[in-house]
Amino acid sequence: MDLIIRVKEIIGYCPVYKVGDIIVLEEGYKINPKKSSTICMHSLASIIPYHVALSEGVEPRPVEKINLKYPDGYSKCCLVLNQVHRN
Terminal CA-to-CA distance of the chain, rounded, Å? Predict the structure, then answer.
């Protein structure tokens, strides 16, 4: 199952992303550089704990303390709030 990670919100300044940028993980783990925006290692690290479970059909829910104020299916790096959904 493909995962699409979309930049939903940027808090402060991010030198890499703008709202609406995406990262496409085909089959849940293969980055598609043609369909993806530039990839920042910080944001990629924030999705690593989730990508296998999400690609296997587990429903997204916040698991980090910082995510408790955000809806299900979100991860966060330093400044960027990402929304993750299956395609």
Answer: 7
User: Is the pLDDT higher at 72 or at 22?
Assistant: 22
Q: What is the pLDDT of residues 27-69, one digit of tens each?
A: 888 999 999 999 888 888 877 877 777 777 777 665 454 444 5
Q: Which DSSP string do the residues of 53-66 spell out, in sequence order?
A: HHHTTPPP---SGG
Dihedral sign, Cα of residue 61, residue 64, residue 70, residue 73: negative
The upper half-sphere exposure of residue 10, i.e. CA atoms within 13 Å in the direction of its Cβ, equals 13
What is the C-alpha separation between 39 and 75, in angstroms, rounded?
15
Strands (E) in 27-79, as ranges, are 30-31, 74-76
